[in-house]
Amino acid sequence: MRLKHTLLLLSPVFLYNIGFSQSNDSLMLRKITNDIMLNGKCYGYLDYLCNRIGARLSGSPQAAAAVEYTYQTMKSLGVDTVFKQECMVPHWVRGEKETAKILSDNSGEFNASICALGGSVATPPEGITAEVVEVKSWDELKKLGLEGKIKGKIVFYNRAFDETQIQTFHAYGMAVDQRHRGPSEGAKYGAVATIVRSMTNKLDDNPHTGAMHYVDSISKVKVPCCAISTVGAEQLSSLLKTDAHVRFYLKMSCQTLPDEKSYNVVGEIKGSEHPEEIIVIGGHLDSWDLAQGAQDDGAGAMQSLEILRVFKALGIKPKRTIRVVMFMNEENGLRGGTKYAELAKLNHEKHIAAIESDAGGFSPRGFGITGSNEVKTKVRSWANLFFQYGVYDFTGDEGGADIEQLKEQGANLFGLMPDSQRYFDYHHAATDTFSIVNKRELHLGASAMAMLVYLIAEYGL
Amino acid sequence: MRLKHTLLLLSPVFLYNIGFSQSNDSLMLRKITNDIMLNGKCYGYLDYLCNRIGARLSGSPQAAAAVEYTYQTMKSLGVDTVFKQECMVPHWVRGEKETAKILSDNSGEFNASICALGGSVATPPEGITAEVVEVKSWDELKKLGLEGKIKGKIVFYNRAFDETQIQTFHAYGMAVDQRHRGPSEGAKYGAVATIVRSMTNKLDDNPHTGAMHYVDSISKVKVPCCAISTVGAEQLSSLLKTDAHVRFYLKMSCQTLPDEKSYNVVGEIKGSEHPEEIIVIGGHLDSWDLAQGAQDDGAGAMQSLEILRVFKALGIKPKRTIRVVMFMNEENGLRGGTKYAELAKLNHEKHIAAIESDAGGFSPRGFGITGSNEVKTKVRSWANLFFQYGVYDFTGDEGGADIEQLKEQGANLFGLMPDSQRYFDYHHAATDTFSIVNKRELHLGASAMAMLVYLIAEYGL
């Protein structure tokens, strides 16, 4: 494209009327954004976290290194208080790289790209080989189960993302039940293992891991479970159409070790007028083990750190207390978020707002809000201040897993909503690396958060 | 991220009231979008254009192949009319890969990544070596020029993108004057060549080409001109700080051959009620020669093709005529756009709207509008129909270079505005390849265009 036109004149007057009282805020928000776009360190923090520390599953040495790195970074920013909150976390390890094959008497033998789901038990050392039954719904599974057609088989959950969902998180929400309870549902009817189609919009050969839960009330039997790449899922499904006796071989050596000690990392700037009113901002520090956890959730954690940096750099003294938290163990236990909420309750703290960034470091588009109608109305009255930054959508109710438990303590929850189109291309897969993060998008997300934090600190909720 | 929340309930009631008359439109727009997201061929078209045909600078065999490919594709879609519009286009060729070195007596010799700007003359076969003068403004150039400090030197234009501009097209607009008229401005004061910092937000070692213009009224001397990567620009600037006599060597063998015959490709679906009212939709088929021209503008051209596909696939009979145009030679001459406008005038055609997609295939965020206030008000009254698709911004005035000349014939101009953050990372550089395009983002852009086309065809302007 060449530039032929005059510059865009942003005049969202048909959306909202801008009152005089907002013009000072508008200047401050511009100042915050300019500083982040020109001097922000968020991208540099993420570079370190991804390229120097790397994958940091709870209980791993890398998770411990990430705790130390962010603790020292917060210290270096000169905020009022920096501390760690101890919590015990699960320690699951993948073991040797998984192997899998599709075996068809008609068509031959094919390697398949799989990975164990987080929390899965191992296969026996020699692996498991069994015929495959493909299902797309729980009804289908139940019907086959009651007919005895699941017993001794491997269940293959192959319900794909609904591509007509504009928000990819909706498509995820409509498919991820297969990953979560598929293993126990399969075991209930005698399955010996389960395979789930990777949770992604993209057709490629990367398997995507993620949490699953053995649910005792469904079945007390724990069967090995893995995710298969979407290309593998398509191939397996296609082979099953011509050969009902296709077998699958998988070998996994993952195991759950004793819980490890870990920490949330907390940094705080005390409020100048209402120090007792706390605004929590966070992302999670842990990631899955297959990649660097750049978008999930290095981005959100480092954006949260950036809030502290920009407030200190600009000498902004927030009227209410700002507390940034690097939550531990969001991916497979939520122990950090749970511990944080427990301590908040124990200490009779008053959390007026909790803001999480855990949907990627892509261009910000809005915030989900969970709170009273009054709070929603108040926040939406600020929307025109965000419009020129491409942040326009305050209609959703997204929050974040780590902050969810603060709701019952009266906190209003906010979730940063970035553009979601590319998120599941990388989510929980080996491709979630620093190289896929765009600096400006990441910094604009941090800026959107900083703006919201500033306004809440200034005006309360 | 794990999904902890209920699905997003989109309720933009605070933005607009949805009237009853819009509910049928809403259903039709959903149908159009669903078909594009599930069955769209846009991504496949772009794959072919990029990976089978490749870079297609005006006058090249690849540009001719792209004409033939899109002509045949339109034919295969079974639209009412498909034809070509002949036009003569410039034929500039890069020649051998350029070489360049930074030479400093203090610091040594360094290779530099450069590319000739489109339209540049060659250096002598032995290259040019001269001292470098860095400037960031025309005032600075003029001052140095009047002091005789430009004569015999190479001018290095190093005004960077303004990172505080949220829309990267604004930053581009504020810097690209250096590329356009830098060569003539330098020549005016006796420069022997000019270098310009690549037009990008990204710090990397890829040079970005683009058009320049020798302006006779500024200087009749044509000097060779190139773009240097941002990494190279930073290095050169840094060396100049400690050594004022840094020299630069460049060798380029580009040349302008005689004009070639080429074509716009046009496909039309006749309007059922007002066939005389024409809605033009387009992108440009030509690209720079360094890469596949995926985002610029394979994306926009193929999105336009997709409009024809989806209207035919769903059997939509538009009330007004829809005409999709693959414009030729946007990058270095605009001959296709000019020819199209000439013929429209000659044939007394009535173009009510012209819609261009030439800002990349990223997630759509809105449309710029150039038209009367009545037209803007009318289009903005449709905005709530777009909101759930992430398309919310109708405040800008972007159009498109190819359609610009239809304005004086009374056409209202519309430019698709995708998210702009990543666009200039790739623009006119070797990295603008198919692999950086996200299928869903591309298809959502096509969907936004198809929705706007549907509404204009239905209701006029």
* Averaged pLDDT of chain A: 95
Q: Provide the succession of SSEs of chain A.
A: HHHEEEEEHEHHEEHEEEHEHEEHHEHH
What portion of residues of chain A belong to β-strands? 15-25%
C-alpha-based Rg of chain A, rounded: 24 Å
Q: Using the coordinates shown, work out and report the CATH topology of the largest domain in chain A.
A: Aminopeptidase
Give the tally of β-strands of chain A: 15
What's the architecture of the largest domain in chain A in CATH terms?
3-Layer(aba) Sandwich
Q: Looking across the biggest beta sheet of chain A, what order are the strands in?
A: 3-2-9-5-6-7-8-4
Structural class of chain A: alpha/beta
Low-confidence region ranges of chain A: 4-18
Most extensive chain contact? A-B, 68 and 68 residues
What percent of residues of chain A adopt helix (DSSP H or I)?
25-40%
Total number of distinct structural domains of chain A? 2
The number of helical segments of chain A is 13
CATH class of the largest domain in chain A: Alpha Beta
Oligomer: homodimer
CATH homology group of the largest domain in chain A: Zn peptidases
Overall geometric form of chain A: elongated
Structure description:
Two copies of one chain form a homodimer. Chain A is of the alpha/beta class. Helices cover 34% and strands 23% of the residues of chain A. Chain A has 13 helices and 15 strands. In chain A, the strands form two sheets. The first copy, chain A, has an eight-stranded mixed β-sheet with strand order 3-2-9-5-6-7-8-4. In chain A, helix 1 runs antiparallel to helix 13, helix 2 crosses helix 8 and helix 8 crosses helix 13. About 3% of the residues of chain A have low confidence. Chains A and B meet through helix 1, helix 5, strand 14 and helix 13 of A and helix 1, helix 5, strand 14 and helix 13 of B.
